[in-house]
Amino acid sequence: MEVKVDVERNSVGFYQTKDRLKREQRHLLLKRFFSNKLAITGGIITLLLTVIAIFAPFIATQNPYEMVVVNKLQGPSINHWFGTDNFGRDLFSRVVYGTQVSMKVGFLVALITGILGTIIGLYASYYSFLDGILMRFCDAMMAFPAILLAIAIMAALGPTITNVVISISVVYTPYVARVVRSSALVIREQTYIEAMIAQGASSSRIIWRHMAINTMSPLIVQVTFIFAEAIILEAALSFLGVGVPAPDPTWGNILFDGKLFIFNAWWLTVFPGVFMILSVLGLNLFGDGLRDLLDPTGSKGKKK
C-alpha cells in the first residue's frame, strides 16, 4: 500500500516538474523574442498593415474608383491626404485598398505554398523513389527567374487576382518544399523514427505525427519570407500589366500610373512605394526574429 502511494506521489511530482519546465521554457522563449527590438518593430508594422487591410472600408471613406477629373493630380491636402491621381481618384483610398489586396495575396500565397511545400517535402524525404522525381521537378521550376515564370503563368491564365495567387504559389512552392525536405531528411534518420518503423508504425503516422511537427520551425520562418516576396511579385506583375487588372487599386497599378507623372506628381509613387517598403521590411524583420527564436543554434543565435 505504501509502495503504491509512493509511486502515485512520484508520478504527480514528475508531471508537475514537467509542466513547470515547459512553462519556464515558454517564458524564456518569449523573453528572448521580446528582447529583439527589430523583431518587435517588424511585428508591429505587420500588425498595423493587417489592421489597415481588414478595416479598409472604414479607414478609406472615399470611393477608390470615383473619378473627378477636375481634381486630377492635386497634391496632398485635408480633403485628399495623399493627393489625387491622373483621373482625380483619391490616392489615400486607393493605397489603403491596395494594402488589402497585397496582404490578401501575400497571406494566401504563404498559406498555399506552406501546405503544398510541406506535402512535397515530407513525401520526398520519406520515399526515395519520389525524391528523385519531385526534387528534379522543383529544380526545373527554380531554374526559371521568379518574375519570368509568374509572367508566363499569368499569360496563360489571364489577369485576375485568383490567377495571381495561383501563379505566385506555383513559383514559390519549390522553395518551401526544399526547406521542408532538408529538415525532414535529418529527422528521418533519427533513432526514434527507425524504432517506429521497426515496430510497424504506418508511414502516414510517422510522416504527419512526428516528422511534420518537427519541420514546423524552418517552415514558419520560410513562409514569412515568402509572404514578403509575394507582395513584391504581385506589385511587379500589376506594374507590368499582367497582374490584378485596372481599375482595381493595387500598389503596382498605382505605381504604373504614377511613373508617367513622377516629376510633376511625386505623391503617386512615393506613398505606395513607402507602404510597399514598410510591408516588406516589417515581414523580413519579423521573420528574422522568428528565425532567432526557433533556431537558437543558428549563426545569429551563436553571435548572441
Describe the 3D structure.
With 304 residues, this protein is an all-alpha fold. The protein has 2 domains: 1-35; 36-303, MetI-like (MetI-like fold, Orthogonal Bundle). The protein is 76% helix and 0% strand. It has helices spanning 2-34, 37-54, 56-59, 91-126, 128-142, 146-157, 161-188, 191-198, 203-214, 216-240, 251-258, 267-294, 299-303. It starts with a helix and ends with a helix.
Name the CATH architecture of the largest domain.
Answer: Orthogonal Bundle
| Count of individual beta strands | 0
Q: Per CATH, what is the topology of the largest domain?
A: MetI-like fold
The CATH superfamily name of the largest domain is MetI-like
Question: Could you tell me how far the N terminus lies from the C terminus, measured between alpha carbons in angstroms?
Answer: 53 Å
Average residue pLDDT: 84
List the domain count as a whole number.
2
Q: Estimate the strand proportion.
A: under 5%
Q: Note the run of SSEs as H and E.
A: HHHHHHHHHHHHH
Global Rg: 25 Å
What is the CATH domain class of the largest domain? Answer: Mainly Alpha
Structural class, from helix and strand content?
Answer: mainly alpha
- Which ranges are low-confidence, i.e. pLDDT below 50, for 5 or more consecutive residues? 1-8, 298-304
Portion of residues within helices: over 70%
For the largest beta-sheet, the strand count, sense and barrel status come to:
none
Number of helices: 13
